[in-house]
Amino acid sequence: MGQLKSYIAPSAPATRTPCDGSESAMRVEYGFTPNWYHKSCHIDFSEKWHLDPLYRRDTLITMRQELNRRFPTLQLGGDEPESTIPTLDGVHGALTM
Fold first, then answer.
1. What is the pLDDT of residues 54-66, one digit of tens each?
2. Torsion angle of the four alpha carbons 65, 96, 4, 77, in this order, in degrees rounded to the nearest 10
């Protein structure tokens, strides 16, 4: 009761939501900074990333594919990175409220 679980979407700040009680008290959360994606995937996080939703969607797919390539048993990028729905997560360093 009163605990939060964390989720970090690619290139976005961490979010926290209430636990439902079924989670382990010891949870590992993975998160990668925009700089890691820039070095690993050559993604440009300049103005274009923040203002062009098609470019951002393409880079989100690239980031998720890279996570699955590097950490295949963890599937950090999800089961189908290509079906990534574009969001505003991480735009201008924030999350949509």
1. 898 899 899 999 9
2. 0
